Amino acid sequence: MTETPQQWTLAVAFDRTVHYTRARAVLRTGDGDEFSGVGLAHSAAEGRGLTHVAGYLAAGRALCDLSQELLEAVVIDVDAEMNQLSATVPATRTAADHHPDALRA
After folding, report:
1. How far apart are CA 21 and CA 33, in angstroms?
2. What is the pLDDT of residue 105?
3. Measured at the alpha carbon of residue 19, what is the angle toward residues 55 and 11, in degrees to the nearest 5?
4. DSSP labels for the chain?
5. pLDDT tens digits for 5-44?
6. What is the strand order of the sheet 9-16 is part of?
């Protein structure tokens, strides 16, 4: 069976002031989940002909923040799945369950 590839979209928006550049990265999954990250950078380099540097740095930081949010979501989902599985698995049997006479010795 062939599955249809799922497409995710990533958008990065910038807010620039005289002192800083702020980037917000938003990732939307094909299932409708949304993750976001924020990054800041000082805009001091802009006066030296490096206007793009603050944007790159802010975007990179926003993407790092977004990746941390994604990884945290994975941990939460895996933990929830493991807890659900452990609730359905019967309790571990002890040696006494296998050999009731072992407790009388």
Report:
1. 27
2. 47
3. 30
4. -PPPPP--EEEEEEEE-SSEEEEEEEEE-TTS-EEEEEEEEE-GGGGGT-HHHHHHHHHHHHHHHHHHHHHHHHHHHHHHHHHHHHHHSPPPPPHHHH-GGGGG-
5. 789 999 999 999 889 999 999 999 999 999 999 999 988 7
6. 9-16, 20-28, 34-42
Exposed/middle/buried for 21, CB within 10 Å: 0-12, 13-18, 19+? buried
The model's pLDDT over 58-101, given as tens digits with 9 standing for 90+, comes to 999 999 999 999 999 999 989 888 887 777 766 655 555 555 55
Given the structure tokens 């990884």, which residue do they identify?
Answer: 71
